Amino acid sequence: MKVILLLALSAIILSQVYGLAYAADSIVTVETDYSSYETGDMILIHGSVSDYKESDPFKNFDVTLRVIAPNNNIISISQAPLDSGGSYSASILAGGPLWASDGDYTISVSHGSDRNASVSFAFVDSEAAEEAAEEAAEEAAEKAAEEAAEKELEKGCGEGTHLEDGVCVLDETVETSTPSSTTVSTGSSPSTGFNSWIYSISFTILIAFAIMIVLYLISRASRNKSDD
Fold first, then answer.
1. Residues of the chain whose pLDDT is less than 70?
2. 88 and which of 31, 80, 198, 225 could share a cystine (Cβ 3.0–4.6 Å)?
3. Boundaries of every domain in the chain
4. DSSP H helical segments within 45-168, as ranges?
5. Domain 19-124, what fold?
6. Please, where are the H alpha helices in the chain?
7. Could you give the dihedral angle defined by the CA atoms of residues 202, 206, 211 and 216, in that order, rounded to the nearest 10 degrees?
8. CA of 177: how far to CAs of 88, 167, 171, 180, in Å?
9. Spatial separation of the C-alpha atoms in residues 94 and 107, rounded to whole Å
10. What is the separation of C-alpha 60 from the centre of its chain, rounded to a whole number of angstroms?
């Protein structure tokens, strides 16, 4: 019997706890006009506090809105007043130095320390995406221009050469040979032939003169023998 009573009491306590938690969660609501935004978009926020009483000094105060980035950093804090029916509205400009990354951002709304609500939305930094696309296009254009210029320069290089650092150089597989010098005989000039003729005549005269001297000596020797 005691066990049954304890189980029943536990069930009642748990149901009350969950009921209070659900009631606390549903007291504050928050919504956005869209589920995704880009840089420069205006985020419209609206919601309500169901137990708001303008005459109650413990409940008559503004709601606090916090924008939380994907890395859980709080990038914006603001407040919005409640009207007589407990409703509120606010607007936040998407983008800025603190909106550094794409992803899911969260708007957390609180009215007091224990009553909160939140909603998430997707954010895309369109300016960063456009800048990245422009940079990629510029790099591609520069690369294409460089390749076209290199091809034009390579056309000016002869066979067996290639372009290197803007200069045409020989390929490593091509063996260079030094042209040998050749001597072309053009024949003797007239002056050279005349000199050769003079030399030959002079040599002949010298030989004849030497023979005459030898004959003279022989003849003289013969005369001397006959006189004796």
1. 1-25, 128-132, 154-156, 158, 163, 166, 173-194, 197, 225-228
2. 80
3. 19-124, 126-156
4. 126-155
5. Immunoglobulin-like (2.60.40)
6. 2-27, 126-155, 190-227
7. 120
8. 92, 21, 14, 9
9. 12
10. 57
